[in-house]
Amino acid sequence: MKRKIDEIDLQNKRKLYVVKNGELIAHDLPEHGETVVVMHQGEAKDIITTVKTRL
């Protein structure tokens, strides 16, 4: 489900903003884990998030 983004909060460390297919997409970052953005010819093709459990 795509959400329309009214404004970008640059102070929020839990959001990643990516342009994909000409649209701005907000992606929530995990508290523990990593996010990989796959780029091809200057465009974001995929966003892969790995969530790790905290020990």
Q: Could you please describe the fold and organization of this structure?
A:
- This protein is an all-beta fold.
- The chain has one domain (1-55).
- Helix content is 0%, strand content 53%.
- A hairpin with a 2-residue loop joins strand 1 (15-20) and strand 2 (23-28).
- The radius of gyration is 12 Å and the shape is flat.
- It starts with 14 loop residues before the first strand and ends with a strand.
- 0% of the residues are buried.
Summarize the structure.
By secondary structure, the chain is mainly beta.
Number of strands: 4
From the alpha carbons, calculate the radius of gyration and give it in angstroms.
12 Å
Helix content: under 10%
Instruction: Return the average pLDDT rounded to an integer.
Output: 83
Spatial arrangement of strands, main beta sheet: 1-2
Uncertain segments are none
- Portion in strands: over 45%
Determine the structural class based on helices, strands and strand pairing.
mainly beta
Element-level helix/strand string: EEEE
Largest beta-sheet details: 2 strands, antiparallel
| 3D shape | flat
What is the number of helices?
0
Oligomer: single chain
Question: How far is the first residue's CA from the last residue's CA?
Answer: 32 Å
Domain count, please report it: 1
